[in-house]
């Protein structure tokens, strides 16, 4: 009886539907079709094509890095990127910040019933393109469909594995007093780009997301022989939050020079208008590196060879005094604390 | 936005600070009225550049901070109604009413939305004819014209599902209240440039005359503020008490007449309670009878009457003293102990322009700039 109903349900659903339907997550023929026509086609590689429960791949000797992250951005498409490329870049960058070269990703999709198939294809194609450009493969995945109203179009989880070059020791505990703090580029574009579409704001001058993979610049930084003590990408909470986390993790103080921090004119203007501080706004293609001060110049040169980091600059120093506290030297030469925010930044009133 | 840099010039700031230091011969206490200026002073460490016998106290100029708890409670009630889309600026969402905040209402299923302009709320009303869109009209004279325009536009469009919860406050009556309070420390005011852009500064001339207090209309960038302070100190040292305009690039004596007319069409002055301070006559705006249809307090009278407001402030919060310049935030016993931005006891710890929040964010663990070393360029 129940089987009859299920059969009936499948038959009544158009095979090439224009929207995601609950049955696309049901494990039946429609789901197989979705996996074949959308995911396997886009991510196209022999490991995924086996449609096995997991991917099997050879590993080198040494250490692997492994990470996972979920992406829930609204809107799905924004200037300079979309949830798909973001899900690939984000996980690549998490691996890169460990010092690892990313190899394989998984992709888990939670789709909302009624999502247009075209949107899904666009997102998945964008993921595939981002993965290809970065030289990583999406080798396994998962799909679930939830009732209309129970999701936000698409949620994506990506996990990734990467190999660690031998002899790498990167982490907050490696940060030392005297380290130079390098920033790879200008701040705030991603957060403002997303906000501009979400809130329907029209900013003068296009602001595009900085979303980009960072593993190649990190690889060159590690290979040029610079003692790199710590790396951190500047996602949610921006530069200020990352610095604070590391100051606490390393039990070190930090002094940052506000005038040296690059912020694009259009981003700064939009932030002024909204009462946001660019130091707290999210980025998806920026990172900070803590390197031994004597190697600052080589490190900056290695970073600047890459388009994603061509603006790399030194913004500050790790200090012995005031452990766990980040001090900002303002444009006027006065000092103040650069603190964590208590919640999200909210646009101010007037 | 190119213009920002020249008002953050380090050499110019040092020169101005030196000029102020040379001018100050006696101790003076001056108040910046506006929360945006408080924020800039603490964010850029301006007070660290000033001589120790010049004391800056922070005024009531954060509209989020002074919105009375009864109005916040009304906002919470309206936002909880099933058919209502409640629109507010972001800052208001964290301000505690007597039972929770707007974020809490949103988490419980209320349709609370952050808007950037009252016209966004008007758009929402047009797009959702089957819903009631209520807009929390909070702010000083600066934002009142935009709300007035929204109401005028709503009437023109014949919208019947749009209303304002009027909570605007006016600056000059608050300055007068501070000046006439016993124990007032303030000897000169930096008046808020943005407010004067709209309202002009004629009404300040009467205040300056009657209380013999110098007032300098001042902008928001660090150089503006230092210039404003220099002008104020000069008047104090010379024994003058007039209104001067530092912010001439934006402010004219008569203000923006068209904006004033829009405000006069929609709003009228009324007695308003200021959170922490108390009632100040003629210091708030309410909708005129002609616009009663767009007044949320009228439209939802029954729903609001049912719930009522407890109106209880936390007894430990000294925000009234802070807002009148009688207490510096770090001197409040609850500062950074019982009261933090995560668990605020009072509104000044919540708003991005609140004095307590500014000190918490930039000054905690003094020594890092509370009176940092003075730098010459
Ligand atoms: S620190 Fe907190 S308790 Fe004290 S006055 Fe400010 S808001 Fe009120």
Task: Describe the model.
- The complex is a heterodimer of chains A (350) and B (377).
- In chain A, helix 4 (83-97) runs parallel beside helix 5 (117-134).
- Chain A has a 7-stranded mixed β-sheet with strand order 8-10-7-11-9-12-13, with helices on both faces. Chain A has a 4-stranded mixed β-sheet with strand order 1-6-4-5. A two-stranded antiparallel sheet of chain A has the order 2-3.
- With 350 residues, chain A is an alpha+beta fold.
- The relative contact order of chain A is 0.15.
- In chain A, strand 2 (77-78) and strand 3 form a beta hairpin.
- Helices cover 33% and strands 23% of the residues of chain A.
- Chain A is globular.
- With 377 residues, chain B is of the alpha/beta class.
- Chain B is built from 16 helices and 11 strands.
- In chain B, the strands form 3 sheets. Chain B has a 5-stranded parallel β-sheet with strand order 2-1-7-8-9. A 4-stranded parallel β-sheet of chain B has the order 4-3-5-6, with helices on both faces.
- In chain B, helix 1 (10-23) packs parallel to helix 11, helix 2 (35-43) packs parallel to helix 16 and helix 7 (144-157) packs across helix 12.
- Chain B is globular.
- The model of chain B is unreliable at 366-377 (pLDDT under 50).
- At the A-B interface, helix 9 and strand 13 of A face helix 1, helix 2 and helix 16 of B.
- Bound molecules: iron/sulfur cluster.
- Iron/sulfur cluster binds next to helix 15 of chain B.
